[in-house]
Amino acid sequence: MAQFVKKPEKKFVDIGLDEGAATLTTDMIQQVISRVLKGETSAYLKAYVDTCVSCGLCSEACHYYLSHDKDPYYAPVVKVKQTIWEILKKKGKVSPEFIKKASEIAQTECDLCRRCAMYCPFGIDIADIILIVRWICYILGVTPQYIQDIANSYSVTMNQMWIKEDEWINSLQQQEEEAQNEIATLRIPVDKEGADIMYSVISPRPEFRAQFIYKAAVIMDTAGVNWTMPAAPGPDNSDMTMYTGDNEIMSRVKKTHFETAMRLKVKKILISECDSIYDIGNKWLGWKWYPIEIVNSIEFYYELLRDGKISIAKKFEEPVTLHDSCNVDKGSALYKMARYLINATCKEFVEMHPNREHSYCCCAGAGVINCGPHWNMKQMHGSKIKARQLAATNVETVIAPCHSCYGGLEDVIRHYKLGMNVRFLSDILYECIEKPRVVIDV
Amino acid sequence: MLYSNSWNWEIGTRLVANTGNWKTKFEWVGEPKVSPDGEKIAAVVKIGKSEFSVCVNGEIWLNHFDRIWHAKFGPDGRLAVLVSQKGKWTVAVDGNTWKNRFDYVWNTMFSPNGENIAATIRQDRQYGVVVNGELLGNMFYDTNNLTISPDSKRTAAVVQTVAFRKGDIFKFQEGCYTAAPDGKAWDRNFVNVWGLAFSPNSKNLAAEVRTSLYDYTVAVDGALWQDTFSCVWAPVFSPDNKAVAAPVRVADKWTLAENGKQIWDRKFFQLWGQIYSPDGSKLAAIVAPKFGKWTIAVNEHPWITTFSDLITDVVFSPDGNSVAAAGRDKGLWTIVVDDQSWKDTYDMTWQPVFSPDSRNVAARVEKNGYYTIVINGKTWKHYCEALWNPVFSPNGNKVLIRAIENGKYYRRVLPITKI
Ligand code: SF4
Ligand code: SF4
Questions:
Q1: Considering only the top CATH level, what class is A320-432?
Q2: How many helices (H) and strands (E) would you count in chain B?
Q3: CB hemisphere CA count around B221 (13 angstroms)
Q4: Which of A173, A383, B264, B309 could connect to A363 by a Cys-Cys bridge, CB 3.0–4.6 Å?
Q5: Which residue's alpha carbon is at the smallest distance from atom 2 of ligand 2?
């Protein structure tokens, strides 16, 4: 089914890296690095350097390494050697060109998938180290243009797509109208104080993938859930600034997210297909864990089905496979719940191998897909192993539990001409559940 | 308090509307809203295909619209909703629309005295603020964070004054946003502007600003505090209008600054939501003395009672001697007053309300799917399907309870001794 066509790398310019690095001097870099690498961060990195024996066992975990035919350049430990290790060795006295390259490695050659941590005999988490590299590069003003633009969007709108308040509310109203063509009484309750659940999404542009909101609305309406959506385009449940190293905006987005839940007096926040809410922002703010309970959509839909709040009217005919996303807690029950949902809704489920916490990353996560189209080829070359995995299932539908994975898988499928399509779990549920109150207005 | 002197404070219970019936009368009924004096209950209702109206105490407005949402009662009891007809939007107040129509209107806001209604609008791809339907000042590339002054006469918003293309990260960093009191932009721009606050006399405006990607500070009427910080949160003015206080992050810890100078010696893992006592002699704030522990600090001294999850809805008593807040500990909510938590826990609590004489504290709470009122930790033994915040009578002896029980909306005035 699949043809692996490797396209040549293109030369390109990223003004975020080039112009950012052009303003730097070695002295400036050293000053910033000595300011950043102190206290806990410095102790953490020292412990890493003292612990890592450069055994390379982590290499077999990394999809970049595997996708590049085991080119050592892409080994996790080499990413560290090329960045923080060198910075520590030179006590921060590195060149602007070095910082530019470090930013490129940290932002476009590592998805923070944490797979390598499972393969390291000492449990070293390369992702945490790469996050520190991103942080240093951000403070030095050397971040890829597109993801920096996304960070700017968060700072103004609290969402990643520059969606303004009016566009957001209008988009929810359009989604509601669309859903009412199917269920006349259906509502998307906006800013409903005291609802049980606040549905928090990655704010889509009205013209781009917004339909997942109305499908979720149909599921919630059918299940009789007391829910609401905030009347503001932010907080977005994704927070890509945690991937650029802008901790201040990252925490502002998180603060707004939870304050919105507190304002609406909801008991839980349901996050749409996304696994990027993990808890760096909460911790920066002083919250040990989420101050208001967060429910992943997989768990939410699982409970609706398990508790009989929704039932299955028909099964999805085509065989499907599932991509397990990386930031779902490794080893968590969500893997099981996703399979429960798929087995209940689909006639045939084909596992990808390896799967669950060992699944290969889609190569889009942690901001890699957000670095802009000019880095896209790098992403495609890094996802060759994923393409092989997808092709080996011999099915045409892959289910993605996360928006970034969804976009990443679409890119992989297109690039490697796999002839597959990507669906959210909510798409499948929406198609298969019993909708008892289907009334068309006349 | 402004209007409550003129409300009916006669003790007793009155059935205002049989709201349970509405669901059978209309295709669907929106979330009910109740007037501050409890005399009216209203909801957006669907009366036909793409035809909506508002039902107030069982009566339907004569005007019908293609879409209605965001019903909101003002302090004076007027009801404002956002309405759309033939693709144009405006505000309808007690059934009468503003004469001007816009491409979009949202975020209606009543002034504290209820006389003025402000909203954000979009017209011909430009954004601005309208008051009672009339444009105030200029239009901008974006307008958000609308606020109204305490004297009800002024508005302010965060505005975008310079256009930039998506992806133009350098233009963005030059500063394209500022604050605009009364629709007139300050004469300098910032990378970001958030958290606007008017002074109590409504003459001055403060905002938290980011002057570069890395520098945060407070601007008052466009002039910056002398120092910048690695982060700040929203400022507030002191009651005498002379000081602006804001949380600032210094050396990875948070403290409180006034007019740019740190006034608390103590540093916290986190600090926000600061409020002055009515006489200005005290400052209380939500703080995390340690990672994962939340409490209130009054004049920098943290309470002993801590909460693992969060603290919110902080309020000073009118005499300034007490502070109350809602807190969540290991998933359970309660009210804490002057470092003492109420003994019961709830599934949800709302902002505590002090009586005008500062002697009593009441709060709306939810448990097991029902709502009730708790005063000084004592629970009213009525379990309601819906309930609004309690209001004390001006003399503090009675409490107004607005509740739906068994599908009926009642207005109740009870002596507080009955709870
Ligand atoms: S975190 Fe993932 S992408 Fe990054 S080095 Fe490790 S395995 Fe590779
Ligand atoms: S497996 Fe662990 S110890 Fe070995 S190279 Fe990788 S990080 Fe270092």
A1: alpha beta
A2: 2, 42
A3: 9
A4: A383
A5: A120
pLDDT over 60 (residue B85)? yes
The radius of gyration computed from the CA coordinates of chain B, to the nearest angstrom, equals 23
CA-to-CA distance for A387 and A390, rounded, in angstroms? 5
The rounded distance, in Å, linking the Cα atoms of A109 and B190 is: 33
Specify the residue for token string 């470090």: A102
For atom 4 of ligand 2, which residue has the closest CA? A55
Cα A112 to ligand 1 centroid, rounded to whole Å? 5
Is there a common fold for A151-157+188-204+219-306 and A320-432? Answer: yes
User: A4 pLDDT exceeds 50?
Assistant: no
Give me the residue from A145, A170, A441 closest to B169, CB to CB.
Answer: A145
Q: Specify the CATH number of the domain A151-157+188-204+219-306.
A: 3.40.50
SS3 track for A350-378: ECCCCCHHHCCCCCCCCCCHHHCHHHHHH
Choose among A310, A313, A301: nearest CA to A342: A301
Contact: B292, A287; criterion CB under 8 Å: yes
- Name every protein residue with a CB atom under 6 angstroms from any ligand 1 atom: A 61-62, 64, 76, 79, 110-116, 126-127, 361
* pTM (global) more than 0.90: yes
Sign of CA dihedral A35, A39, A43, A44: negative
Sketch the domain layout of chain A as residue ranges: 15-143, 151-157+188-204+219-306, 320-432
Is domain A15-143 in CATH 1.10.1060, yes or no? Answer: yes
Please tell me whether the interface predicted TM-score (ipTM) of this complex is above 0.90.
yes
Contact across the interface for A145 and B167, Cβ inside 8 Å = yes
